[in-house]
Design goal:
Layout (H helix, E strand, L loop, with lengths): L1 H62 L4 H22 L4 H4 L3 H37 L4 H32 L2 H36 L1
Length: 212
């Protein structure tokens, strides 16, 4: 009987120790898994934060014209906008430039022709954009989509070139003194526009930094 009791006690102790060891191993595995998950989440957060920060820096560089290609595109867009603005405003600058009635009539005729031309281009562009949307919806080939995108870009370019061409015709109506006055006025307005765009870009960059 005494031997049986000892055997039971020893068996119970062994089972207890085995259960404790297994429990400790499971706890160790859970801790390792929790550590791994924590490290993965931390790395994911660092990657996400890094990407957001990099994106914010790139956007700030673009807004400030620090990116060379972005700066060139911005300058080109400003030049083309200048011609469009000239076409729209020049016929109404009779007092500022001391235009004669005959000059004003010629300028308005050129402006009217330009506006009709722009309406045709806009209608053509809408049709091309609708076709592009249709190609995208139908999962067309990459070459078809590329050709259609180039067709849309071509029409947009034609619209800008038309403004440049009309502005040249309008300047031909002016005298040399009037051309010089117009040049000075456009330079002042262009500087104000550029300064406003730079200030706006700096404001966006500061806002992005604050949000981060």
């Amino acid at each position: 009987m005494k031997k049986m009791k000892k055997l039971v006690i020893i068996t119970t102790a062994l089972l207890f120790m085995a259960g404790y060891t297994a429990s400790a191993q499971m706890m160790g595995q859970n801790n390792n898994q929790n550590q791994k998950q924590g490290m993965m989440m931390q790395n994911s957060g660092m990657m996400k934060g890094g990407m957001m920060q990099s994106g914010g820096m790139m956007q700030g560089m673009m807004n400030n014209g620090m990116c060379p290609m972005c700066g060139q595109m911005m300058n080109q867009n400003m030049l083309m906008k200048k011609y469009g603005m000239m076409v729209n405003r020049l016929p109404n600058m009779q007092q500022q430039l001391s235009l004669t009635d005959d000059q004003v009539n010629q300028l308005f005729d050129l402006q009217t022709g330009f506006k009709k031309q722009q309406l045709d281009y806009q209608s053509e562009l809408r049709k091309k954009q609708m076709k592009l949307n249709s190609l995208l919806a139908d999962n067309a080939s990459a070459s078809q989509v590329k050709n259609q995108m180039e067709a849309c870009s071509e029409t947009k370019t034609d619209m800008k070139v038309a403004a440049y061409e009309t502005a040249g015709k309008m300047k031909a109506v002016l005298t040399n003194d009037q051309k010089e006055q117009l040049k000075n006025m456009m330079m002042q307005q262009g500087g104000m526009m550029k300064g406003g765009m730079i200030n706006q870009g700096q404001g966006r960059m500061m806002q992005n930094q604050n949000n981060q």
